[in-house]
């Protein structure tokens, strides 16, 4: 059963996510360029390698102790970092090449940061590390 705090947290995350998408869409609509929508794709795809490769690295391996990192998990974090850096730097490169304007760049980066921070907050708040039994 969800408490009142978790209901408020879900509503707040939905509001922040909507604001992030609104910023990215407005950065394209106000300045008549839709290249900024690629930021949404990078921020939505960013948590996927981390999720997939963390499931590939099971903690029940005999040869791996808890002190060593697993290569699969490290590679997933590396790919996630690549997507995050791409999401931040793509609008900067597009603005430098004069494909988009500088205000559209700031709106796109801000909206992408809101979208990705919402995804991270949701996944950490509702992560089940183990059973309560």
UniProtKB/TrEMBL annotation:
<feature type="transmembrane region" description="Helical">
    <location>
        <begin position="33"/>
        <end position="53"/>
    </location>
</feature>
<keyword id="KW-0472">Membrane</keyword>
<dbReference type="GO" id="GO:0034424">
    <property type="term" value="C:Vps55/Vps68 complex"/>
</dbReference>
<protein>
    <submittedName>
        <fullName>Vacuolar protein sorting 55</fullName>
    </submittedName>
</protein>
<keyword id="KW-0812">Transmembrane</keyword>
<keyword id="KW-1133">Transmembrane helix</keyword>
<feature type="transmembrane region" description="Helical">
    <location>
        <begin position="6"/>
        <end position="26"/>
    </location>
</feature>
<dbReference type="InterPro" id="IPR007262">
    <property type="entry name" value="Vps55/LEPROT"/>
</dbReference>
<dbReference type="GO" id="GO:0032511">
    <property type="term" value="P:late endosome to vacuole transport via multivesicular body sorting pathway"/>
</dbReference>
<feature type="transmembrane region" description="Helical">
    <location>
        <begin position="75"/>
        <end position="94"/>
    </location>
</feature>
<dbReference type="Pfam" id="PF04133">
    <property type="entry name" value="Vps55"/>
</dbReference>
<feature type="transmembrane region" description="Helical">
    <location>
        <begin position="106"/>
        <end position="127"/>
    </location>
</feature>
<comment type="similarity">
    <text>Belongs to the OB-RGRP/VPS55 family.</text>
</comment>
């Amino acid at each position: 059963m969800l408490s009142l705090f978790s209901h408020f947290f879900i509503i707040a995350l939905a509001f922040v996510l909507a604001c992030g998408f609104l910023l990215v869409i407005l950065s394209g609509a106000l300045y008549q360029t839709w290249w900024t929508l690629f930021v949404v794709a990078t921020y939505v795809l960013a948590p996927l390698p981390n999720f997939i490769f963390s499931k590939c690295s099971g903690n029940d391996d005999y040869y791996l102790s808890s002190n060593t990192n697993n290569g699969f998990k490290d590679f997933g974090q590396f790919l996630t970092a690549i997507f995050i850096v791409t999401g931040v730097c793509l609008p900067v490169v597009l603005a430098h090449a004069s494909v988009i304007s500088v205000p559209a760049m700031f709106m796109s980066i801000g909206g992408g940061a809101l979208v990705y921070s919402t995804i991270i907050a949701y996944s950490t708040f509702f992560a089940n590390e183990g059973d309560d039994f």
